[in-house]
C-alpha cells in the first residue's frame, strides 16, 4: 500500500529575503498562495510547524523516508541515533509517532558535555596520533584543535576494538593537558556512536580556553591511548582573495534558472577566448503540468481528471460538468463543445443517478475527444460510489498560475529546458584536467547556484589581472552546470519553496491528484547506477511520493543522463563537485550502504582517501578565510560515515565508473555566535543579506566560492604533477630478536601495492588498506622472516621509481626483508 507523501523539511525555511530578484516567503516552510475560488479544499496544502525529532538510527531514517517524509538535511548523529528538525502538520506528527519517531520537547535532545554547541567537530592536517601496534585495543583516530570567532574547540574521535560490545556498553574517558609538559586533567566521558547496529566510534567536542598538546583516552575495559593534538584547517596556500586587485562579490541576489542560464551565455559571449557554452542533449520534462481537478470529495464517488494537453497548451481551458438530466433509464454519455466537457450521468428505472466513479472515469477517458488523458477514482478508492451532479462546470488547472506571495510578476517559460554548460579554460581541447561543478540537483537549494556562478565570474574577471587565476584558467578546463534541475528550481521559486525533486510525475492513479502536486518528481541524486536502491542499498525510495524517490529506473531522468553524457564525451574531466545545501559537510565515497550489516559501497584506496582529505583541508581552509566559518572534521569524509546512506548518488557513479575524484558539498554549515555561545544552523534559502558574521545567502556564496576556487588550484597542480611518490616500510628491513610491528608510510597521498610471497608486485597485488575507516594504514605483525616487495602510485598516477607494474620485467620496485632471529 502506498502512503501519501508527507511534507517534512528538517530545517524550517526562514523568511526569504531575495533582493530584486526573488522576494520573501513570509512563513517558515509553508508556501502561501492566493486562494483559488471554487476549488476543493482537498487540493490545498496543509499548514506545517517545526518540531525537533529523534530517530533511532539509519534503519528508521529509511523507514520514515519510504513513508514519504523528507528528512535529508540538517541531520546530526547522536548516541541514541539521529536528531533533526521537521516541518509537519498535526496529523503528520501523529504519523511520525506511529512510526516510532520521538518528538522532542523544547530544550530536549543531545548535548555534548561542556560543549558550546552540542554539535560535532574534528580536525585535519598532518596526522599526529602515535603509530599503532597490532595489539592496540584503543586508538585515537583524530585529536583536532580549531578556532572560530576567537573561540577554541577540541574535537576527539577514538575507537575501541571492543566497541561493538553492548552489554555492558564499553565506555571511554577523555583527558587532555593544557599544553606541552602539563598534567592530565578535565576528565570527561566520551559518547558512543552506533549506526545501523554497527559500532562507529566514540567522539566528543569540547570548548576550551587553551590549546592542548596531547590527549589520553581510557576504555572501561582497560585500554589506554595517547594522541598528539593537530591543528584543523591550517597550512593551506593563501586565499586568492588576498591577491592585490583580486575581484570578487559579483553575485548580489539569488538567481532563478533563467537568469543563471542567461548569464552563462553572456559570459561565453563576452569572453570568447576563454569561455564557451555546451548544450546538454537531453531536454528536461519542463516547468509544466497537466491540468487537473478533483471532483466529488474523497469518497467512492470522487473522480480525478487529468488533461491530455499540458495546462499552458490548452489543458487549463478545459471544464468538466457532471449533469443530472430529467428522466429515467438514461445511459451514461459525454458531450464535448470546444473545451467544455459535459458528462451526462446515467439514471436508473426510478430516475435516480446510477453512474459510478469508475464508469464516469472510463467515459471521460474514451469519449472526451482526446481532451482527457487520465480519469480515475480518488486515490485508493475502487470507485463504486454513485457520482453526484456538479452545481457548475469545474475548471481544470495545472496550478502553476499560483504564485508565492512576493514572487516577481510574469510567467515562467513553460516547456522542456535545454541545460547549458558554461565551459571556462584557455585550452578547451581535452589537454587539461577537467573540473565539473554541478549545482542545484535539489531544487530548493538556492545558495549552491549563486556559489557556482560567483566562482565562474571570478575566473573570467580576474583572468587578465591576477596571475593565480590565470594559472587556473590556463591549466584547467572547468565545466559549470549552474542549475541541474531548472524545472524543480522554478517550482521552488514560484510555487513550493520546499521542492527538492524535478517535476516529472511517475505516479500511478493512486497518487495522482492535485493535492499531491508537491509530492511528485525524482530525486536526481538517487537516480544513478552505482550503489543504487535497485541494488539493495539504503537511502533511496521506491515510493513516487517520497522526496528521495529514485525514479522508475536507474538513469531514468534526462538530468542524470546528461551528466553521464558529459563525462563520457569529455574524458578529461577528472574532478567533480556536486554542490548542495545545507549542513556544512564535504564528503566523498563511500556514499551508500546496505543497512543490514552496514555493508558500504567500495571504499577508495588509502591513497585516494588521503588525497581527498588533503584536498578537503585546503578547500575548507579557504572557506574559513572569509569569515572564520569552520566545517568541522566529523562532517568530512565518506558521506555514509558522516551523514547517512544515499543510494544511487552521482558521486558514487562518477568515481567508481570513471575514476573521477567526485566530491559532494553541503554548503551553509553552522556558524558560531560568540555573543550567545551557540552555533547558528543554516537553511536552504537564508535571507540574502544579514549579519555578515552569521548565516546569510551572500556570506555563504562568497565563502564557499573561495573553496571552489581552491579546488581549481588543486586540479591545476594535479595536472602538472609529474613527480613520483616515495614510500618506506617502517621500521624497515633488518634483524629483530622478537616479532615486530611494521607499516608503510608515504611522502604524499599514494596507494601502495605489495607482496610478501616473493612475487613481483603488480596492480593486482594486495593493496595497503586502512586499519579502519577514518584511520591510518594497517599494521603488520611480523613473526617470521618476511620480505616485502612494493611500489606506490600517487593520485596523479605517477608510479614510484617509474616502475612499470604491467610489464613482467624490471625490478625497480621497493623491497625490504624483516629477519626474525630464532
Outline the structure in words:
The protein has 12 helices and 39 strands. The protein has 822 residues and is α+β, with helices and mostly antiparallel strands. The strands form 10 sheets. It has an 8-stranded mixed β-sheet, with helices on both faces. A 5-stranded mixed β-sheet has the order 9-10-6-5-13, with no helix packed on it.
Q: Predict the CATH topology of the largest domain.
A: Aminopeptidase
Based on DSSP secondary structure assignment, what is the total number of beta strands? 39
How large is the share of residues in beta strands?
25-35%
Instruction: Please indicate the count of domains.
Output: 4
Q: Strands, helices and their partners?
A:
Layout (H helix, E strand, L loop, with lengths): L48 E7 L2 H9 L9 E3 L2 E8 L1 H9 L3 E3 L33 E11 L2 E10 L11 E5 L8 E5 L1 E5 L2 E11 L5 E6 L4 E5 L1 E2 L25 H14 L4 E5 L10 E6 L7 E8 L8 E5 L9 E5 L2 E5 L12 H11 L4 E6 L16 E2 L24 E5 L9 E6 L7 H16 L4 H9 L1 E5 L4 H9 L63 H12 L3 E9 L3 E4 L4 E2 L4 E2 L5 H22 L8 E3 H4 L7 H9 L2 E7 L3 E3 L4 E3 L16 H24 L6 E4 L3 E3 L3 E7 L3 E6 L24 E3 L3 E9 L19 E7 L2
Parallel strand pairs: 5-13, 17-19, 23-24, 23-25, 25-30, 26-29, 34-39
Antiparallel strand pairs: 1-3, 1-4, 2-3, 5-6, 6-10, 7-8, 7-11, 9-10, 11-12, 14-22, 15-16, 16-20, 17-21, 18-19, 22-24, 26-30, 27-28, 31-32, 33-35, 35-37, 36-38, 38-39
Helix pairs in contact: 5-6, 5-12, 6-12, 9-12
Amino acid at each position: 500500500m502506498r502512503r501519501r507523501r508527507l511534507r517534512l523539511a528538517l530545517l524550517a525555511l526562514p523568511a526569504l529575503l531575495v533582493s530584486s530578484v526573488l522576494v520573501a516567503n513570509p512563513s517558515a516552510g509553508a508556501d502561501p498562495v492566493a486562494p483559488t475560488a471554487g476549488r476543493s479544499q482537498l487540493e490545498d496544502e496543509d499548514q506545517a510547524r517545526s518540531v525537533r525529532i529523534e530517530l533511532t538510527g539509519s534503519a528508521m531514517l529509511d523507514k520514515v523516508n519510504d513513508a514519504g517524509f523528507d528528512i535529508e538535511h540538517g541531520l546530526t548523529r547522536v548516541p541514541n541515533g539521529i536528531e533533526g528538525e521537521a516541518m509537519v502538520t498535526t496529523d503528520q506528527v501523529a504519523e511520525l509517532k506511529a512510526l516510532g519517531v520521538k518528538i522532542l520537547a523544547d530544550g530536549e535532545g543531545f548535548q555534548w558535555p561542556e560543549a558550546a554547541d552540542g554539535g560535532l567537530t574534528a580536525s585535519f592536517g598532518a596526522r599526529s596520533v602515535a603509530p599503532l601496534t597490532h595489539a592496540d585495543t584503543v586508538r585515537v583516530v583524530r585529536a583536532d584543535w580549531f578556532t572560530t570567532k576567537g573561540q577554541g574547540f577540541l574535537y576527539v574521535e577514538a575507537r575501541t576494538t571492543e566497541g561493538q560490545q553492548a552489554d555492558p556498553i564499553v565506555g571511554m574517558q577523555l583527558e587532555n593537558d593544557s599544553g606541552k609538559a602539563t598534567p592530565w586533567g578535565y576528565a570527561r566521558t566520551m559518547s558512543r556512536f552506533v549506526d545501523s547496529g554497527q559500532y562507529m566510534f566514540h567522539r566528543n567536542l569540547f570548548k576550551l580556553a587553551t590549546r592542548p598538546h596531547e590527549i589520553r583516552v581510557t576504555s572501561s575495559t582497560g585500554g589506554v591511548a595517547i594522541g598528539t593534538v593537530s591543528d584543523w584547517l591550517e597550512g593551506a596556500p593563501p586565499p586568492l582573495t588576498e591577491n592585490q586587485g583580486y575581484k570578487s562579490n559579483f553575485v548580489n541576489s539569488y538567481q532563478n534558472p533563467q537568469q543563471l542560464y542567461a548569464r552563462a551565455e553572456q559570459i561565453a559571449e563576452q569572453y570568447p577566448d576563454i569561455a564557451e557554452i555546451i548544450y546538454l542533449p537531453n531536454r528536461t520534462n519542463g516547468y509544466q503540468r497537466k491540468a487537473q481537478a478533483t471532483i466529488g470529495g474523497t469518497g467512492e464517488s470522487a473522480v480525478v481528471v487529468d488533461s491530455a494537453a499540458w495546462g499552458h497548451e490548452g489543458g487549463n481551458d478545459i471544464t468538466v460538468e457532471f449533469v443530472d438530466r430529467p428522466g429515467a433509464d438514461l445511459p451514461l454519455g459525454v458531450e464535448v463543445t470546444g473545451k467544455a466537457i459535459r458528462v451526462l450521468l446515467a439514471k436508473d428505472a426510478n430516475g435516480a443517478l446510477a453512474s459510478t466513479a469508475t464508469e464516469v472515469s472510463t467515459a471521460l477517458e474514451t469519449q472526451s475527444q482526446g481532451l482527457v488523458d487520465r480519469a480515475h477514482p480518488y486515490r485508493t478508492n475502487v470507485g463504486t460510489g454513485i457520482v453526484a451532479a456538479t452545481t457548475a462546470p469545474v475548471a481544470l488547472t495545472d496550478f502553476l498560475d499560483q504564485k508565492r506571495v512576493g514572487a516577481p510578476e510574469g510567467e515562467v517559460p513553460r516547456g522542456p529546458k535545454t541545460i547549458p554548460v558554461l565551459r571556462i579554460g584557455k585550452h578547451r581541447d581535452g589537454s587539461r584536467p577537467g573540473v565539473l561543478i554541478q549545482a542545484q540537483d535539489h531544487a530548493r537549494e538556492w545558495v549552491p547556484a549563486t556559489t557556482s556562478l560567483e566562482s565562474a565570474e571570478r575566473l573570467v574577471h580576474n583572468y587578465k589581472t591576477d596571475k593565480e587565476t590565470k594559472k587556473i584558467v590556463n591549466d584547467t578546463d572547468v565545466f559549470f552546470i549552474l542549475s541541474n534541475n531548472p524545472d524543480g528550481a522554478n517550482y521552488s521559486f514560484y510555487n513550493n519553496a520546499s521542492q527538492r525533486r524535478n517535476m516529472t510525475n511517475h505516479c500511478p492513479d493512486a497518487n495522482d491528484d492535485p493535492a499531491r502536486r508537491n509530492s511528485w518528481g525524482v530525486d536526481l541524486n538517487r537516480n544513478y547506477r552505482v550503489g543504487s536502491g535497485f541494488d539493495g542499498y539504503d537511502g533511496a525510495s521506491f515510493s513516487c511520493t517520497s522526496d528521495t524517490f529514485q525514479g522508475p529506473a536507474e538513469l531514468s531522468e534526462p538530468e542524470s543522463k546528461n551528466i553521464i553524457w558529459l563525462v563520457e564525451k569529455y574524458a578529461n574531466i577528472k574532478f567533480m563537485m556536486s554542490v548542495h545545501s545545507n549542513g556544512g559537510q564535504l564528503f566523498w565515497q563511500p556514499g551508500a550502504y546496505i543497512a543490514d550489516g552496514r555493508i558500504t559501497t567500495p571504499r577508495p584506496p588509502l591513497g585516494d582517501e588521503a588525497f581527498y582529505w588533503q584536498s578537503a583541508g585546503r578547500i575548507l581552509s579557504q572557506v574559513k578565510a572569509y569569515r572564520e566559518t569552520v566545517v568541522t572534521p566529523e562532517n568530512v569524509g565518506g558521506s555514509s560515515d558522516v551523514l547517512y546512506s544515499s543510494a544511487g548518488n552521482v558521486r558514487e557513479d562518477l568515481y567508481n565508473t570513471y575514476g573521477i575524484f567526485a566530491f559532494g558539498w553541503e554548503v551553509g554549515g553552522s556558524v558560531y555566535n560568540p555573543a550567545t555561545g551557540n552555533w547558528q544552523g543554516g537553511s536552504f534559502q537564508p535571507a540574502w543579506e544579514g549579519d555578515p558574521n552569521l548565516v546569510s545567502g551572500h556570506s555563504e556564496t562568497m565563502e564557499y566560492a573561495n573553496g571552489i576556487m581552491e579546488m581549481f588550484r588543486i586540479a591545476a597542480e594535479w595536472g602538472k604533477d609529474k613527480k613520483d611518490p616515495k614510500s618506506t616500510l617502517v621500521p624497515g628491513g633488518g634483524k629483530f630478536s622478537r616479532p615486530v610491528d611494521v607499516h608503510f608510510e608515504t611522502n604524499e597521498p599514494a596507494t601502495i601495492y605489495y607482496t610478501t610471497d616473493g612475487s613481483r608486485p603488480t596492480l593486482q597485488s594486495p593493496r595497503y588498506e586502512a586499519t579502519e575507516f577514518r584511520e591510518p594504514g594497517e599494521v603488520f605483525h611480523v613473526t617470521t622472516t618476511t620480505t616485502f616487495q612494493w611500489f606506490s602510485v600517487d593520485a596523479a598516477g605517477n608510479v614510484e621509481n617509474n616502475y612499470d607494474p604491467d610489464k613482467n620485467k624490471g625490478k625497480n620496485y621497493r623491497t625490504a626483508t624483516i629477519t626474525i632471529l630464532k
